[in-house]
Automatic annotation (TrEMBL):
The keyword Membrane applies. This is Glycosyltransferase RgtA/B/C/D-like domain-containing protein. The chain crosses the membrane at residues 63-81, 132-152, 159-176, 219-239, 245-264, 316-336, 342-363, 396-416. Signal peptide: none annotated. Residues 1-10 have a biased composition (Basic and acidic residues). Residues 1-38 are annotated as: Disordered. Keywords: Membrane, Transmembrane, Transmembrane helix.
Amino acid sequence: MGNVLAKEHAGAVSEPDGAGRSCASARIGGAPPGSTLESTVTVTRPRILSGLGRPQRFAPRPIVLLALVSCLYGLAQLLLVSPRLGLGWDEAVYASQFSSHAPPAVFSAPRAQGVPLLVAPVVALTDSVLVLRLYLTVVSSLALFGAFSVWLRIRPGRLVPVAALLYGSSWLSLFYGNQAMPNGYTALAAVAAVGFLLLGERSRLAPVGLAGSLAVMSLMRPSDALVAAVPLVVTALVGLRGRRIVTLSAIAVGLAVGWGQWAIEAQLRFGGFVTRLKDAGEHNSTGWNVSIVEHARALDGPTLCRFGAECGAVSPVALTWWLAIPVMTALGLWSAGRRRHLFPIALAAVTGLAMALPYLFYVDYAAPRFLMPAYALLSLPIAEAVVTGVRLRRPVAAVVIVGLVAHVALQGAYAFRMAVVSHRDREAIDAAVQELRRMGVRPPCMIYGQSGVQIGYHLRCHSHGIIQRFASRPPLRIQQALERKEQVVIVYKNRRLPSYVMTWREADLPGPWKARFPG
């Protein structure tokens, strides 16, 4: 194929003399016509012609554009979301699992080991949040480039860089890019998995990439990987003519990595696979639910609509952006159908829709990051619509370009606002940590209360966090810590205290925080 493409390229730029050059004849020494001294000098003036007869303009290769988008993605994270942003609850849980300076926090049944393994090389060496953020900025930028670069062999051209730009500029991708959270990596692994499946009959290494992508996805969020595998398996059974068994085997291997680890951990720490599965369902409030309205209310934040969090009303601007997604997806599918490359774009759209359905109809609360895999996959048909629209007449192209700029500006503003709010809250936690450290809180210790996981991680203590309320009786872990004569500290800011700590010594911490120590 390489030789054929080379010949086609050579044929495209070679022109006969009349088209590719101009000739001029000059008689040397002014000899008359027909003289033996007559000589003809041919002067060649090369011209570079495009297929339409116009001079060619320099156009960066798609892989260069994709690399540029990935670099800008990392830069935007550093500018919009400070690399000094403190750790969130989930991040502290994940970071503590392989940390060299803090004991592991309680690891609940729904969680998986993908993120702890991702951050292990950093947290095993240092407790610096700045180093962790910079590391994750680099990793997420490389992941964006790697996932979408798979599609350059499927849809060469500017569609792939545009799709990466659409997804990378969303506030969810920007806000969570350098955070120790699984959803962004699940999303990019899904993009790569669909691409490797489509390359299964053209590349011998594609099944390896497919297995690796699903392994990453299943280590990050096993349930998401299982849902994504359904349209991939159906496609392999119906759409592939050759290497079907190899492709199905790759899917099975990828799922086995994450689910196998989850099952082994369930047996060792959670009383068995079925027990852990049941506990995970109860923790996530699963069952037939319709949470579309909750997701609509959370389009511009907060990060979680649960445990009494005020999600606010639906933003008309954010809702308009959300409703534009299915419209642009449909236009992209229509355009792909006209250009006779519908199948790859349709598979991406179907897989993205499949990964969104459980969170819209099966989980009884909303967290915007749950839909990141759907947004990543739908960016491909939307990019198809954008690229097609830019090529149309000027009014249509102008509308498309304005819409693209509006998307980038709106989502960037949301990311900045979420970063400001989170930075303020986590700075208050850091100030409370510094004061507790000054007051002499040292290991062995147990931190119990609001944001107890983050505070415990930074103080190198065991932790027991609460979200809604304190237990009416001391939890078993708190009783055991007291019996071991460990230093137990209750931390809180706006929660009603249980009766068993009312006699404990109270201390004010910076901001709204307070602490209680056993007498």
